[in-house]
Amino acid sequence: MEKARIILSTLALSLAAVTPAFAASSTRVYSSGALVLVFLGFCALVVVAQLIPAIMTLVGMIKGTVENRKSETVTAKSHN
Questions:
Q1: What is the rounded distance in angstroms from the CA atom of residue 20 to the CA atom of residue 16?
Q2: How confident is the model at residue 24 (pLDDT cuts 50, 70, 90)?
Q3: What contacts 68, CB < 8 A, 6 or more positions away?
């Protein structure tokens, strides 16, 4: 019980001594135009369009690996 009290006291004192981090000020108003937002939306659309075939290829590779393992276990059992 004494060790737990010492550990908790040490933890409390170390956390009390930590100073908060000062983040950058974000009081400025967003002033970019609509074209910037359209460009960023187009970039996001391109990224999503590239992700769809990549995910489909990954799923196909995983299915092929699983089917290959199943066929290897079947052939291994038939030799016994």
A1: 10
A2: low
A3: none
